[in-house]
């Protein structure tokens, strides 16, 4: 039994404490630290992009409301009227937030 233990320790020392194994563990540690730093930043950037995309959609819809008003001499009753007249393809934000038309101004439904 003692001889088996000595062989196991020798095997561990030979293969697990060799310079290539230690180098590989250091590289994996560095990669892990970089991922721990990068992943939260990517999630934050995704949220900012969704917000900016919604703001851009609102600006586009408001411009199209103006174009509709110039062509038909009246404001559209709803955003669906813009879509039916083929002024826009989408009347929701990229994050699927609902938008509504209030007195010629486009707003998020939850505001």
UniProtKB/TrEMBL annotation:
Keywords: Cell membrane, Membrane, Methylation, Transmembrane, Transmembrane helix. NCBIfam families: pilin_ComGC. It is found in: Cell membrane. The lineage of its organism: Bacteria, Bacillati, Bacillota, Bacilli, Bacillales. GO terms for biological process: establishment of competence for transformation. GO terms for cellular component: plasma membrane. It is a single-pass membrane protein. The chain crosses the membrane at residues 21-43. It comes from Alteribacillus bidgolensis. This is Competence protein ComGC. SUPFAM superfamilies: Pili subunits (SSF54523).
